[in-house]
Structure formats: structure tokens, C-alpha cells
């Protein structure tokens, strides 16, 4: 059977978190009453003119530099002409042949291998508004238009077709998001649409040089959707080819519920955007010194930070990779270290219990009720012997639910560890008396039996007995 | 002379001396409108109430003994593609027949700030596309010199209003000659300033890289005051030049000794009416007598200006006019089946033929496969045309020629002959492609129809044009001629 590989290129739209829109002074705040974040300019009313927000250029340059791009000293804006009710001017101001940044790359790790994915270019553009359909798009009696998002500043990051699998696609976008977040130019919140991606995908027999016919899957707004859609589309295309069919170049959408991609329109109906230079905007001419200045002001980026975690904190590569995947996660980590310098222990808690509970609750670390200071205090309580590691998990869950300080929870629930030898010794004696069989087994050399007896002591003390002490006393008594 | 026949600077002198009040001037102009508007039809919308209020404000200032600026209380007409907050702005199109903008064009705001009195919004070719004001969705405008004839276009209403005394000054827009050509046909002074000298904010665009707002006045002195009022950088228009403009009245000097004037031979070639040519030659003789050195020169790429202009202007127009889709303002056709059908019907019913023709031309030339052959090539030729001017203006202080190859033609005469119609702008179009300033001023009559003399200057050197125009005016009588109505 033929082995296939995918050829994937991604177009990632990132909304920049400037205070005002790209060509007017309207706020970029998320939400708001429909059409309240608008003015004659972003509504495209006749005679109004765009004036470029300098901050957008700065942010685009910052992102470009963080993604190892060359920044264009001269770039310009073009009009991309097409009709859609959410597009007030029926053209989108974008950049076509002279974008702000080109020829960058990011490095991803998949299955222990590091791979470089090329970035073809990054361009700036304005976002469109949004349509609110009354029911299904095909049968809606009418649709409403909300232009709040119209004119929001975007950068579009277009990759080279260097990606070979859905896993790589996901890793690429995750890395991209991490880097952009670190630069501070965007929140990259997929759920709010501030990071969206389109996937261009084709398949070919492994070893073949030329590309197959590609399809485009539009508007994927979660990592899961991205990976699943790419995997589905890859399989679909392979099946078509295997059965002797041909791939049609077309645009498809991802149906999350059914887990399939669906055809939207074929190439025949594809747009001719009739790009031409926007005569209302002057070219963007950048000073090399200014670009250098921005370069120097770039913060530590994920890869640098990951290396530092390995070197400075002695963390395993794996831990360092996970912790630096989002800026929030690594900022949290570092803040916690500031309170209590136990990197590996903190990392264990974050990658273990914390990730588990965040996943369960479907939230991310920004919504976590446990503050770094509190996590540090919890670990201190364990180190001081106030609570056992086992109790600590109970306390952690409670902290996660209520946001209370660990000491408060320990006190309220009476979870302080019993380290009183006398108190533990009497429980040990009770357990020995109640379990003659296990005592016999232990004396017969079955080391395992001691574990059971420890467990019984812990059970009797509701987990509060100091486990080291229990072990020590048990062995002494059974001598 | 009647009040409505006077210039702004003359009326200003009378206001200051309390020989007349702003209210009286306004009243005189509206009476004139009542008297002749049926014949001329310069306006789409009249703003009597606003005018009376504004005039009263000026009179209040005068009564309080306050000093007033040179244009305060002067009746003003605005081409109906200049946005006026709270006042209908139609572009003479069905598409915008109900459009009341919530903002005011910067140039208009500057005139409001200078306390001019808004009389109304003038008729024009639909979306400024045309050379005769015959493509208006509302009605024809007639040339005050001969009501059988067109006033020129597309600022025909603004030119005829000033010529007929229905306003003292006005603003038009000039994309390929739309201020200068109607000014020439109507025997008034019209200027297209350097591209970027006046903010385009609030001027409904036809072709953004060519459009420019400019004044139409009765004489050169009024022109200088109007330029003082409207020129300057606007943070709302990034293509507006960030330059300090001079006081243009300083150029109102009766002296052109030693100035070098070039006459491009292409502007007096075949196709230019012989009698128009005669008027231009007489003007040349006059200027020579007054001390200028006039010499023939050449703008070799002039022949390519027309096709270049129509490629670029229509390409930009096709994109600029895409926003009229019936979705959120303006005309929306009834009975659409779905959103695409609504777009189609609204645009089919909302636009007139000339506009549709140009949108289609522009869409075609920007299409994949044609872009390089048409749009891109036109951009390159535009550069050559610019270079022609640069070279000529290195040698000369300014260039001179006719504004239009003929005098005003008869209504309906060219409407079905687009090429002949387009040729009316042959002398003005190259100037827009080069982004240069140019002025048209009356320099004679042919069969009792005015002839326009065009002066073309270096970028941002409106001053020299004013100086030559002023000198010509001071030594001739053409600017005193008024049509009989
Ligand atoms: Zn806005």
C-alpha cells in the first residue's frame, strides 16, 4: 500500500491588541452592543478615509521580528475587492505584494524531533464585521450585521507548505501562539476569535516531489478542531486518490459536530480579488533604526525561556517545553518560584494536578483561582511536614474550587499531619493487633505486607499520620 | 451691479463699511435663485434656513463691532458630493438620494469655521462622472450664458451657480478637469489645487488618486481667499500634505515680469477649436506684453493621458463605488430574493448608465489576467506623463493652454458620443495624472460663450498661478463679464 504524507500550509489570523482600530479611533474592546464600536470611517461611509494606526505597524513588526522575519522598509496597503454584507466598503484593506514582513520561521518539536517551519510572509489588514443569522444560514429569513469587529487590526501569518502532518500543524500553531503571546501584541484567544486559522492541505505519496491538488479549510478556531479537521481531510483525500478519483481544488468548512469537512465552493466560483494599491493610504516607510529598537525591546521568547528553564532550574526538557507553551503558564511558574524556590516540585504540581483540574473544568490558567503565592505556600506546608503529600492533593482541589489559602483549608478541615509519636504508636499497635495475617506475612519476609499495614494506619488516621513516622514505628514494633 | 453679481472681496469691503448686511447679501442671492433657478437649475438642495442663521451670526458680530474675516457672510454653494452633516448629500445619484451624512467634509468645515453662508448643494454629474452635468439623476443644469447649452461637468452646478449669481463662491471637485472645464464654460475662475493641498476627507470619492477639492469664484482675488481657507494638512486624510501653506493673497500682485511660461504644443494641436485657439493666442500676446517670456514646449506623452486616465479612474471608481450595496445606507431595491440579489438589484436600479459603464470598465481592467496589460501599464504611463511635466516645469515657471478644446456644447449633443465627451477634458486630465495645480480663468468670448485659459504650475506652487492669473485679470476685462439671464 502507498504511504501518503500531507503537505500543509497555514494562514493564521491574529488580532492585535491595540487600543484602537487599524484605521480609526474606535475601541477594540471585545463585545459591546452591536454596532456601538463604530464610526463613519470603519463603517466605510462615503468620503471617509482611513488613517493608519502606528501602533498596528509597531505590533506587526514586533511579531515579525519574533518570528525571525525580515521587516520591509517599504510596504504598502492594497484593496482586496469582494462583496459581502459584513464588509462595509466591499473591499478589505490588506497588503498584497509588499507585505510588512517576509521569510521567517518557527521551530516545532514533534515526537522528539525539532523541525523548522518557514513563514512566507506576514501582512497587516483590517477585519470584517460579522453576520448574525436568524437561525440557519441557508434558511434564515434575515440576517443582522454587527460592524463592531470591522476595522479591527489583524496580521495574517502565512506559512510555507512545510508542514507534513496534522500533529505538526497543531504544534506549529501552538508555537506561533506562544511566540505571539510572549511579544504581547495579541492575546491569541481562539475562543474570542483573536486567533483563527485556515488550512491548505494536499496529500501525496511519500517520496513524490510535486504537490497534490489542495483544498482549503476555513476558519478553524481551536487546536483540536485544527488537528481533527486536517486529519479528516488528509484521510478523505487519500481515500479519493486510492479509489482512483481526483481532488477538486475547493474551499471547505469543518463541521465540528459531525467531525467532517464540507465543501463550500469550488475553484470555478473562486474570487478574483482585483487587488490594487489603496490610493487612500500612503506607503509604510520604516526606519532601520526603529526596527532595531523594536528588536532590542523584544522580550524573552518561548524557545529562549525553555532553554533557560533547563539550564537555570535544571528542569527536564519535557517540563520546560510544556511550561513555556503559553506565556501565562510560564509566567505563573516563574512567579511561584519567586515565592518558593522549588522548580521541579512546582513544575510537577502544574503539569499534574493543576493541568488535570484545568482540563476538567475546561478553563485555562488565567482563570485559575489558585494564585502562585498559594501554590508556593502549599508546597511549603508539605516540606514543613504540616501536611502529607496525599493530604496536599485534597487541599489543592479545595484551593482550586474556592481560591482559599492552603493554611486556612488545613485548619478548617483539621488536616494537620499527626507527628506525635505517642499518638501514632497507639494506632500502630491497634493495627498490628487487628491484622495478624499481615504481621505473619511480614515476618515471613513478605516486604509487601508492610505497605498494607501502613495503609491501614493512614486510613485510621484519615491520612493525617506522618507516613515516615508510621513506617518507622511499624518496623520497630515488628522487630 | 446687483449684490449677487459682486465678488466676495467687494462684498466684504461693503460689510465692513456697513454698507450692507450679511442678511441682505443672503437675501439677494436667494432672490436671484428664485428668479433664475427654474432656468439654470444649479441646485439639488437649498439650505435657506441654515443660510439665514449663519448670516445673522455674522451680522451679530458686525453689530458688536467685532472684526470679521474676509469670507464671513459670503454665500457659498457646495457640490453635492461634499459631505455636510445633517444635509442631504446625493452625488446626484439615486443611490444616495436619501443619504444624510453624520459628518462634514474637512474643506467644508473649514468654510463653516470661516463663517461662510451655505446656500445649498449643487447639481453635478452622477458621482462626478461626466463632463456636462447631464448624467445627474435629478435634472439637467443649464449654462447661464446660453440655457440651451451644458454648464460643463462634473461640477456644473457649482460653476453655473457662481456664474448666475446664485452663490458668490462655491466648491467643486476635480478628477479630470471637473472644476476647470465647467468654470471655463461658465466664464468663472476655477482651480484644482495640488493633490494633497486640500483634504479629501468627506468628498465622496470617484477616483481617489486623482480627486481634489477646489474653489470656483468670480475672480482671482476671491480664489486666493478661498484657498487660504481650505488648504492645509488634515489628520483625517493621510494623503493630505503636511506643509504650511503660504498666505495666497500675497501673490495678488500685478507683475509677471521675467516669468517663464511654456506653451505645450500638444495643447494647441488639432482638435482644439480655432476660435478658442485664437483666444489663447491673444492671451499669450497679452502676457508677453506684460513682461512674461512665453515659449513653445512639449509634453510628449499627452496622447496617452486620456486612455491612462480612463483606466486608472475607472479602476479606482469600481472599487470606491462597491460600497453602495443597499446593506446599511442609501438606496435599497425592493423584492430581492436573497442578499446577492439585493446587491444586484440595488446597484442595477441605483446607478445610472455612465456610472455602470465606468464600474464595468474598471472591474475589467483590474481583473486577473488584465491587470498587467491595463492597470499596471497605465500606472507606468502615468509616471511618464508626470516626468513630462517635471521636465517642462524645470524650464518654465508655469505652463499655459486652453482649459477645454471648445466652448460649452449643446445639451444632448455629446451624450451618446462618449469619446467626444471625454475629449472635452483632454487639456485638463494630464494635470490630474501629474497631481499638479491648475487654474482656469476667463480669457475671451466666442459666439458669446466664455473661453477658459488654463495655467498649470509646479506642485504646491499655487501662488505663481495666482500671480499670473491676477496680472492677466488686472489687465483685461473678461472677469467682469456676466451672463444675461
Ligand atoms: Zn471606527
UniProtKB/TrEMBL annotation, chain A:
It catalyses: L-aspartyl-tRNA(Asn) + L-glutamine + ATP + H2O = L-asparaginyl-tRNA(Asn) + L-glutamate + ADP + phosphate + 2 H(+); L-glutamyl-tRNA(Gln) + L-glutamine + ATP + H2O = L-glutaminyl-tRNA(Gln) + L-glutamate + ADP + phosphate + H(+). Keywords: ATP-binding, Ligase, Nucleotide-binding, Protein biosynthesis, Transferase. Its EC number is 6.3.5.-. It is an enzyme of class 6 (ligase). GO terms for biological process: glutaminyl-tRNAGln biosynthesis via transamidation; translation. Residues 331-478 form the Asn/Gln amidotransferase domain. Pfam families: GatB_N, GatB_Yqey. InterPro entries: Asn/Gln-tRNA_amidoTrfase_suB/E, Asn/Gln-tRNA_Trfase_suB/E_cat, Asn/Gln_amidotransferase, Asn/Gln_tRNA_amidoTrase-B-like, GatB, GatB_C_1, GatB_Yqey_C_2, Gln-tRNA_amidoTrfase_suB_CS. GO terms for molecular function: asparaginyl-tRNA synthase (glutamine-hydrolyzing) activity; ATP binding; glutaminyl-tRNA synthase (glutamine-hydrolyzing) activity; transferase activity. Belongs to the GatB/GatE family. GatB subfamily. Allows the formation of correctly charged Asn-tRNA(Asn) or Gln-tRNA(Gln) through the transamidation of misacylated Asp-tRNA(Asn) or Glu-tRNA(Gln) in organisms which lack either or both of asparaginyl-tRNA or glutaminyl-tRNA synthetases. The reaction takes place in the presence of glutamine and ATP through an activated phospho-Asp-tRNA(Asn) or phospho-Glu-tRNA(Gln). Heterotrimer of A, B and C subunits. This is Aspartyl/glutamyl-tRNA(Asn/Gln) amidotransferase subunit B. It comes from Desulforamulus ferrireducens. The lineage of its organism: Bacteria, Bacillati, Bacillota, Clostridia, Eubacteriales.
Automatic annotation (TrEMBL), chain B:
GO terms for molecular function: ATP binding; glutaminyl-tRNA synthase (glutamine-hydrolyzing) activity; transferase activity. The active site is at 79 (charge relay system), 154 (charge relay system), 178 (acyl-ester intermediate). Keywords: ATP-binding, Ligase, Nucleotide-binding, Protein biosynthesis, Transferase. Gene3D superfamilies: Amidase signature (AS) domain. It catalyses: L-glutamyl-tRNA(Gln) + L-glutamine + ATP + H2O = L-glutaminyl-tRNA(Gln) + L-glutamate + ADP + phosphate + H(+). SUPFAM superfamilies: Amidase signature (AS) enzymes. InterPro entries: Amidase (IPR000120), Amidase_CS (IPR020556), Amidase_dom (IPR023631), AS_sf (IPR036928), GatA (IPR004412). Its EC number is 6.3.5.7. GO terms for biological process: translation. It comes from the Bacteria. One of its GO terms (cellular component) is glutamyl-tRNA(Gln) amidotransferase complex. Allows the formation of correctly charged Gln-tRNA(Gln) through the transamidation of misacylated Glu-tRNA(Gln) in organisms which lack glutaminyl-tRNA synthetase. The reaction takes place in the presence of glutamine and ATP through an activated gamma-phospho-Glu-tRNA(Gln). Heterotrimer of A, B and C subunits. Belongs to the amidase family. GatA subfamily. HAMAP family: GatA. This is Glutamyl-tRNA(Gln) amidotransferase subunit A. The gene is gatA.
Amino acid at each position: 500500500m502507498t504511504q501518503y504524507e500531507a503537505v500543509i500550509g497555514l494562514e493564521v489570523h491574529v488580532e492585535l491588541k491595540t487600543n484602537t482600530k487599524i484605521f480609526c479611533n474606535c475601541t477594540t474592546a471585545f463585545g459591546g452592543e452591536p454596532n456601538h464600536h463604530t464610526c463613519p470611517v470603519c463603517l466605510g461611509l462615503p468620503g471617509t478615509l482611513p488613517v493608519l494606526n502606528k501602533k498596528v505597524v509597531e505590533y506587526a513588526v514586533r511579531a515579525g521580528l519574533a518570528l525571525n522575519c525580515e521587516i520591509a522598509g517599504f510596504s504598502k496597503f492594497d484593496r482586496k475587492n469582494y462583496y459581502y454584507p459584513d464588509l462595509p466598503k466591499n473591499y478589505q484593506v490588506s497588503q498584497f505584494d509588499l507585505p510588512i514582513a517576509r521569510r521567517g520561521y518557527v521551530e516545532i518539536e514533534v515526537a522528539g524531533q525539532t523541525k523548522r517551519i518557514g513563514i512566507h510572509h506576514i501582512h497587516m489588514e483590517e477585519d470584517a464585521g460579522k453576520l448574525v443569522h436568524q437561525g440557519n444560514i441557508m434558511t434564515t429569513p434575515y440576517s443582522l450585521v454587527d460592524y463592531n469587529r470591522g476595522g479591527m487590526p489583524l496580521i495574517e501569518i502565512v506559512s510555507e507548505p512545510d508542514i507534513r502532518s496534522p500533529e505538526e500543524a497543531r504544534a506549529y500553531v501552538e508555537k506561533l501562539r506562544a511566540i505571539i503571546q510572549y511579544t504581547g501584541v495579541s492575546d491569541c484567544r481562539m475562543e474570542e476569535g483573536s486567533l483563527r486559522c485556515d488550512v491548505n492541505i494536499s496529500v501525496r505519496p511519500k517520496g513524490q516531489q510535486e504537490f497534490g491538488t489542495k483544498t482549503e479549510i476555513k476558519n478553524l478556531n481551536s487546536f483540536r478542531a485544527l488537528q481533527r479537521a486536517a486529519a479528516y481531510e488528509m484521510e478523505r483525500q487519500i481515500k479519493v486518490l486510492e479509489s482512483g478519483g481526483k481532488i477538486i481544488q475547493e474551499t471547505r468548512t469543518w463541521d465540528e459536530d459531525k467531525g467532517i469537512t464540507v465543501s463550500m465552493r469550488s475553484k470555478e466560483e473562486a474570487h478574483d480579488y482585483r487587488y490594487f494599491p489603496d490610493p487612500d493610504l500612503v506607503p509604510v516607510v520604516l526606519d532601520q533604526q526603529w526596527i532595531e529598537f523594536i528588536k532590542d525591546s523584544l522580550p524573552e521568547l518561548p524557545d529562549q525561556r525553555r532553554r533557560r528553564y533547563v539550564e537555570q532550574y535544571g528542569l527536564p526538557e519535557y517540563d520546560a517545553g510544556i511550561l513555556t507553551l503559553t506565556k501565562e503558564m510560564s509566567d505563573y511558574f516563574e512567579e511561584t518560584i519567586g515565592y518558593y524556590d522549588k522548580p521541579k516540585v512546582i513544575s510537577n504540581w502544574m503539569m499534574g494536578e493543576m493541568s488535570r483540574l484545568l482540563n476538567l473544568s475546561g478553563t485555562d490558567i488565567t482563570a485559575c483561582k489558585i494564585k502562585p503565592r498559594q501554590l508556593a505556600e502549599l508546597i511549603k506546608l508539605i516540606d514543613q511536614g504540616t501536611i502529607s503529600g496525599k493530604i496536599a492533593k485534597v487541599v489543592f482541589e479545595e484551593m482550586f474550587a474556592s481560591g482559599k489559602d492552603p493554611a486556612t483549608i488545613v485548619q478548617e478541615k483539621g488536616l494537620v499531619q499527626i507527628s506525635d509519636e505517642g499518638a501514632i504508636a497507639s494506632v500502630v499497635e491497634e493495627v498490628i493487633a487487628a491484622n495478624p495475617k499481615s504481621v505473619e506475612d511480614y515476618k515471613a519476609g513478605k516486604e509487601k505486607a508492610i505497605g498494607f499495614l501502613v495503609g491501614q494506619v493512614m486510613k485510621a488516621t484519615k491520612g493525617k499520620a506522618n507516613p515516615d513516622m508510621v513506617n518507622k514505628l511499624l518496623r520497630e514494633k515488628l522487630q | 451691479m446687483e449684490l449677487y453679481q459682486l465678488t466676495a472681496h467687494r462684498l466684504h469691503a461693503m460689510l465692513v463699511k456697513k454698507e450692507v448686511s450679511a442678511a441682505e447679501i443672503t437675501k439677494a442671492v436667494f432672490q436671484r435663485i428664485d428668479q433664475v433657478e427654474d432656468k439654470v437649475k444649479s441646485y439639488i438642495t437649498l439650505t435657506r434656513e441654515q443660510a439665514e442663521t449663519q448670516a445673522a451670526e455674522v451680522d451679530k458680530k458686525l453689530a458688536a463691532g467685532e472684526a470679521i474675516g474676509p469670507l464671513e457672510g459670503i454665500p457659498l454653494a457646495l457640490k453635492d458630493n461634499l459631505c455636510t452633516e445633517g444635509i442631504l448629500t446625493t452625488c446626484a445619484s439615486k443611490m444616495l438620494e436619501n443619504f444624510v451624512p453624520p459628518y462634514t467634509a474637512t474643506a467644508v468645515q473649514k468654510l463653516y469655521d470661516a463663517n461662510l453662508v451655505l446656500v445649498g448643494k449643487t447639481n453635478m454629474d452622477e458621482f462626478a462622472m461626466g463632463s456636462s452635468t447631464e448624467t445627474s439623476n435629478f435634472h439637467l443644469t443649464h449654462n447661464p450664458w446660453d440655457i440651451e447649452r451644458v454648464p460643463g461637468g462634473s461640477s456644473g452646478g457649482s460653476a453655473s451657480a457662481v456664474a448666475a449669481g446664485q452663490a458668490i463662491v462655491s466648491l467643486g471637485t476635480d478628477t479630470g478637469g471637473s472644476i476647470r472645464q465647467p468654470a471655463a464654460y461658465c466664464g468663472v475662475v476655477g482651480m484644482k489645487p495640488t493633490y494633497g493641498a486640500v483634504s479629501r476627507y468627506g468628498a465622496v470619492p470617484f477616483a481617489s488618486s486623482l480627486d481634489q477639492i477646489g474653489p470656483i469664484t468670480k475672480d482671482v482675488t476671491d480664489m486666493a481667499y478661498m484657498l487660504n481657507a481650505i488648504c492645509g494638512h488634515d489628520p483625517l486624510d493621510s494623503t493630505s500634505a503636511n506643509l504650511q501653506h503660504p498666505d495666497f493673497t500675497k501673490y495678488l500682485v500685478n507683475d509677471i515680469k521675467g516669468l517663464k511660461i511654456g506653451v505645450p504644443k500638444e495643447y494647441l494641436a488639432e482638435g482644439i477649436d480655432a476660435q478658442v485657439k485664437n483666444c489663447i493666442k491673444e492671451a499669450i500676446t497679452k502676457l508677453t506684453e506684460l513682461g512674461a517670456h512665453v515659449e513653445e514646449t512639449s509634453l510628449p506623452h499627452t496622447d496617452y493621458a486620456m486612455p491612462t486616465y480612463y483606466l486608472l479612474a475607472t479602476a479606482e471608481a469600481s472599487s470606491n463605488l462597491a460600497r453602495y450595496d443597499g446593506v446599511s445606507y442609501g438606496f435599497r431595491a425592493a423584492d430581492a430574493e436573497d442578499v446577492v440579489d439585493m446587491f444586484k438589484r440595488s446597484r442595477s436600479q441605483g446607478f445610472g448608465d455612465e456610472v455602470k459603464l465606468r464600474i464595468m470598465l474598471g472591474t475589467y481592467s483590474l481583473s486577473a489576467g488584465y491587470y498587467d496589460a491595463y492597470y499596471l501599464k497605465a500606472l507606468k504611463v502615468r509616471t511618464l506623463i508626470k516626468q513630462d511635466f517635471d521636465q517642462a516645469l524645470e524650464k518654465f515657471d508655469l505652463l499655459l493652454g486652453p482649459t477645454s478644446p471648445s466652448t460649452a456644447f449643446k445639451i444632448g449633443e455629446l451624450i451618446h458620443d462618449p469619446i467626444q465627451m471625454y475629449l472635452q477634458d483632454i487639456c485638463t486630465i494630464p494635470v490630474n495624472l501629474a497631481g499638479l495645480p491648475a487654474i482656469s480663468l476667463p480669457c475671451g468670448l466666442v459666439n458669446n460663450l466664455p473661453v477658459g485659459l488654463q495655467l498649470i504650475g509646479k506642485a504646491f506652487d499655487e501662488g505663481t498661478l495666482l500671480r499670473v492669473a491676477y496680472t492677466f485679470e488686472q489687465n483685461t476685462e473678461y472677469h467682469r463679464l456676466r451672463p444675461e439671464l
